[in-house]
Design brief:
Layout lengths: L9 H15 L10 H28 L27 H17 L5 H37 L5
């Protein structure tokens, strides 16, 4: 078990990476696009990410289980309906999509490396420990769910 496992709230991880993307884009090659074009590209992607996140939260609330990512062992239900039929981690997928939108707004393709860092971090320090806890809680039901639904997309 790593020292960073389930320690930093995922919205904070996304925010830190977003800040680093914003601080670095001036030093990276990018496209000369007007703000209007950048907004036109970024806004629909951001709305998609927010919608995916919200769908995940609403599914958890409907199931009356915790949305606290730092305490997966306190889950009271295995949520496999709604958006969870398509992705096991819609909230994290939504954050990653929002980071893609931020990269589009920055108009610097190399800032997409921030999205890669987010996904790698989440896989190692958030999702793997969550899956370990959910396996302990829900056993074969969770294993079956994992075999049917992909981690991200």
């Amino acid at each position: 078990m790593g020292v960073l496992e389930n320690r930093i709230p995922p919205p904070l991880v996304a925010t830190i990476i977003g800040v680093l993307m914003g601080a670095s884009y001036r030093y990276l090659p990018g496209f000369e696009l007007t703000l209007g074009w950048r907004l036109a590209a970024a806004l629909p992607v951001l709305l998609l990410g927010l919608g995916v996140c919200l769908a995940g939260v609403l599914s958890f609330h409907r199931a009356r289980t915790t949305v606290n990512p730092l305490r997966p062992e306190s889950a009271s239900a295995l949520v496999d309906g709604g958006i969870y039929q398509y992705t096991r981690n819609p909230m994290y997928l939504g954050f990653a999509t929002a980071l893609v939108a931020w990269s589009l707004l920055l108009a610097s393709p190399l800032t997409l490396l921030g999205v890669v860092v987010f996904v790698l971090y989440m896989n190692r320090f958030q999702i793997v420990p969550e899956e370990r806890a959910l396996t302990m809680l829900f056993g074969v039901d969770f294993a079956r769910y994992c075999s049917q639904v992909r981690r991200w997309l």
